[in-house]
C-alpha cells in the first residue's frame, strides 16, 4: 500500500485552519454585537468598533508579516497565534468594560495575517506543485462553510447560556480543533528527499522550477503584473465591503430582515462553491476564460440585486455573486504564486493583501455614507458591477503578460 504524501496532511491542516479559524475569527463575531451592547449599555456602533480595530491592526501587520513568516518556525508561529486568539476569546467572558474588547480584538488583528491570511496559501503553495488551484479552492472554500456551521451553534449558546459562555465556547473550539495540527502536523515546506505533491509527475515543470525560483519583492515592483494584481485586489476587496450592507439593502427595498439574512446565507454558500470550483477550473482549463466566467458571475449577481424583488430571485442573485468572489479569494493568491514564483511569495502576497484590507475597511464606510446621502444602495451596486469588469480585466491582462514573460525567459535559455 502506497504511503500518503505528507502534503495531504498539510492540506488537511489548512482545511481545519480555514473551517475553524475563519468561522471563529470572522464569521460569528456579529452574533455578539447585540448582547454585548445591551450588557454594557453602549451603541451598536460602539461595540462594532472592535472590528474596526481588528481590521486596522490586520492591515498594518500585513506590511511586514510576510518577512516574519519566512524567519520564524511555522509551528511555533501558528501555535502562538491560535493560542493567543483562543485565550483572547476566553478572556472576553470575564470582560468588565468594552475597552477589553477593543484591546483583545486589536491583538487578534495582529495575529490574523499569520494565522489565516497567509498561512493557507503559503503552506499549500510550498507543498503542492500539482493540484494547487484545487487544494487552495477547497481549503479556502471551507471558510464559508465554517460560518454556516458555527453560526447556529454559537447563537444557541448565547441564547441559552449567555454571551460570556459564547466566548468560552469560541475559545475552546479554536484551541482544541486547531492546536493539534499546528503543534504536530504543520511543516513549512518539504525538506531532504521529500518533494511537493506532483513533483515526480512533470519533469519539464520541475526543470523550470529549479532554474527559476521567482522574483524578489523589489523585482516584482518592476513588473506590470504586480500593479495589475494589486489593482484587482483593491477593486474586488472594495466589492466585498458591500456584503455587510446586503441585509440593510434588502430591508431598504421593503422586504423583511429574515429575507436579508437568507440572501447573505446564499452569498456564503455561493462563495464556498465559487472558491472550490474556481480552483479546480484553474488547474484544468484556460485561466483567462475562467477569470472571465467568474467575473460575469460577479457582475450578474450584484446588478441582479437591483432588479429583482422576489425573495427567491434575490437569494439566487446572492449565490451567483458569491460565486464571483472566487476570483478574489482563490485566484489572486494562486496567480501571485504562479506569476512571481516562490522566492518572495510570502512578502508579495502580504503587501498586496494589505491594500485589499484597507479597501474593504474604507468601502464599508463609504457605501454606508452613500446610502445616508441618497437613501439608496443603487450606486454602490452599480459600482460593484463596474469593479468586476475592471478587476477581472486586470487579472486577465496579468495572465497574458506573465505568459509572455515565461516565453521570453525560455527563449533566452535556448540562446
Order of helices and strands: HHHHHHHHHHHHHHHHH
Instruction: Describe the global form.
Output: globular
Query: How would you classify the helix and strand content by structural class?
Result: mainly alpha
Query: By CATH's scheme, which homologous superfamily of the largest domain applies?
Result: MFS general substrate transporter like domains
Tell me which CATH architecture of the largest domain applies here. Up-down Bundle
Reported by name, the CATH topology of the largest domain is Growth Hormone, Chain: A
Describe the fold and architecture.
This protein is mostly helical and 415 residues long. It has helices at residues 6-25, 33-40, 44-71, 74-92, 98-127, 132-161, 163-184, 203-211, 217-220, 224-241, 246-252, 257-284, 287-307, 311-324, 326-340, 345-374, 378-414. The protein folds into two domains: 6-199, Growth Hormone, Chain: A (Up-down Bundle); 212-414, Up-down Bundle (Growth Hormone, Chain: A). Helices cover 82% and strands 0% of the residues. It is globular, with a radius of gyration of 21 Å.
Amino acid at each position: 500500500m502506497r504511503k500518503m504524501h505528507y502534503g495531504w496532511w498539510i492540506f488537511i491542516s489548512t482545511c481545519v485552519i480555514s473551517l475553524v479559524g475563519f468561522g471563529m475569527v470572522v464569521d460569528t463575531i456579529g452574533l455578539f454585537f447585540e448582547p454585548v451592547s445591551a450588557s454594557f449599555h453602549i451603541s451598536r456602533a460602539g461595540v462594532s468598533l472592535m472590528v474596526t480595530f481588528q481590521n486596522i491592526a490586520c492591515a498594518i501587520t500585513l506590511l511586514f508579516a510576510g518577512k516574519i513568516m519566512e524567519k520564524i518556525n511555522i509551528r511555533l508561529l501558528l501555535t502562538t497565534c491560535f493560542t493567543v486568539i483562543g485565550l483572547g476569546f476566553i478572556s472576553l467572558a470575564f470582560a468588565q468594560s468594552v475597552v477589553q474588547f477593543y484591546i483583545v480584538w486589536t491583538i487578534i488583528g495582529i495575529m490574523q495575517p499569520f494565522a489565516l491570511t497567509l498561512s493557507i496559501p503559503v503552506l499549500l503553495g510550498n507543498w503542492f506543485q500539482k493540484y494547487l488551484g484545487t487544494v487552495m479552492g477547497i481549503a479556502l472554500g471551507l471558510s464559508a462553510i465554517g460560518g454556516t456551521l458555527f453560526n447556529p451553534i454559537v447563537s444557541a449558546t448565547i441564547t441559552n447560556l449567555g454571551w460570556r459562555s459564547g466566548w468560552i465556547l469560541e475559545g475552546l473550539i479554536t484551541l482544541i480543533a486547531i492546536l493539534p495540527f499546528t503543534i504536530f502536523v504543520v511543516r513549512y515546506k518539504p525538506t531532504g528527499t521529500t518533494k511537493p505533491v506532483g513533483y515526480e509527475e512533470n519533469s519539464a515543470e520541475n526543470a523550470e522550477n529549479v532554474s527559476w525560483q521567482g522574483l524578489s519583492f523589489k523585482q516584482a515592483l518592476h513588473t506590470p503584473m504586480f500593479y495589475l494584481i494589486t489593482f484587482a485586489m483593491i477593486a474586488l476587496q472594495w466589492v466585498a465591503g458591500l456584503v455587510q450592507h446586503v441585509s440593510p439593502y434588502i430591508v431598504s427595498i421593503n422586504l423583511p430582515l429574515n429575507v436579508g439574512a437568507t440572501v447573505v446565507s446564499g452569498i456564503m454558500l455561493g462563495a464556498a462553491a465559487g472558491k472550490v470550483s474556481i480552483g479546480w477550473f484553474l488547474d484544468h482549463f484556460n485561466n483567462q476564460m475562467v477569470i472571465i466566467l467568474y467575473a460575469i458571475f460577479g457582475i450578474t449577481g450584484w446588478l441582479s440585486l437591483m432588479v429583482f424583488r422576489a425573495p427567491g430571485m434575490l437569494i439566487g442573485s446572492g449565490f451567483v455573486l458569491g460565486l464571483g468572489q472566487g476570483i478574489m479569494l482563490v485566484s489572486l493568491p494562486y496567480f501571485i504564486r504562479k506569476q512571481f514564483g516562490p522566492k518572495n511569495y510570502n512578502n508579495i502576497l502580504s503587501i498586496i493583501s494589505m491594500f485589499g484590507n484597507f479597501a474593504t475597511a474604507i468601502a464599508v464606510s463609504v457605501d454606508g455614507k452613500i446610502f445616508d446621502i441618497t437613501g439608496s444602495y443603487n450606486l454602490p451596486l452599480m459600482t460593484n458591477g463596474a469593479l468586476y469588469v475592471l478587476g477581472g480585466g486586470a487579472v486577465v491582462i496579468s495572465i497574458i503578460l506573465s505568459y509572455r514573460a515565461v516565453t521570453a525567459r525560455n527563449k533566452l535559455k535556448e540562446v
